[in-house]
């Protein structure tokens, strides 16, 4: 299939957190490889951590005098004002008759950006950094238009598996605890009414609901957006996301993994945001030791003080604790046999794309829904069960790891993980569903 090259200029506006920036940067690289000029719009405090000189995506950084506010409510308003006041200036500054700015690809949670784009006479494409299934759930359960009564019983929605209360995103039932975040996730539904395109970081065969959504809206699956060298290898030197807000202990991790047997290590990470309680941290720590497997555990600086006092002395040669890791390199390493994960969407896609079975310990937002799909639909992992107090015991941690690493079920999970790995590669490879969708988008510019 002959690739279309488009003399267009695309602006990309991610929400300024790591899990939203990375997939949008990867999508940008795919556009650049087809001759599109791409400029990523962000704020100074984020651009400083993006060493993207070697990357073909340009950065337009908005200066700000004060540090970004810590309060989520104030931050959302602050970010909105900063972008609103500067986007027109950026578009005018980047004016190029040969590469005219045609479209703003904006993070779906910044739903207000569609109005800014249209006011400037350019198209707007919403980029969803979550699964299509999750978006369908938010679409059907929007508090503003909800027709479904939520009483704790299982929920049946078009083209989705039957969802028990514990499978639904946490905001559906715990909205009162996080009012501003609830408004933010449900505001994404505005995109269905206004955006010219809806991009999803997923691939067609992964989610049945894609076909249903497509009958309603102009959606395009363009994922998985992980560096090309781990999938189709079509983008030269594309081995990293290009931004890391936390510096990884790469050399330490790799040297340690190199000394371990094939499939003998459990990799444990809860992403850049999730935070465990002290009791849960203790149970997880001693569960890892009880599992009798080697383990590489990412414990961020801010979480270290929750580790049990005597834990480090008991870790010895069985475990390695690091503040951050080069996750793709770790998951791709032959010694890793299992990923103990919070089931964030990026981590889920990475594990699927690299063929690694999972133990799921979801915390909040979309993670319970992702865990449901991992365990019951894609069947590439198992989900730990919490006790009555909501804490997952050390015994449950250890037995879940053993089931994946040593049990018969583990063999089946690994086979399924390899199947999804091949399908993920197929989707982004030449002529695959995601590849075709990007081509179609560019041919319409």
From TrEMBL:
PROSITE patterns: UDPGT. The lineage of its organism: Eukaryota, Viridiplantae, Streptophyta, Embryophyta, Tracheophyta. Belongs to the UDP-glycosyltransferase family. GO terms for molecular function: quercetin 3-O-glucosyltransferase activity; quercetin 7-O-glucosyltransferase activity. It comes from Nicotiana tabacum (Common tobacco). It holds the Pfam family UDPGT. Signal peptide: none annotated. The keyword rRNA-binding does not apply. Its EC number is 2.4.1.-. It is an enzyme of class 2 (transferase). GO terms for cellular component: cytoplasm. InterPro entries: UDP_glucos_trans, UDP_glycos_trans_CS. This is Glycosyltransferase. CDD domains: GT1_Gtf-like. It comes from the Eukaryota. Keywords: Glycosyltransferase, Transferase. The keyword Transferase applies.
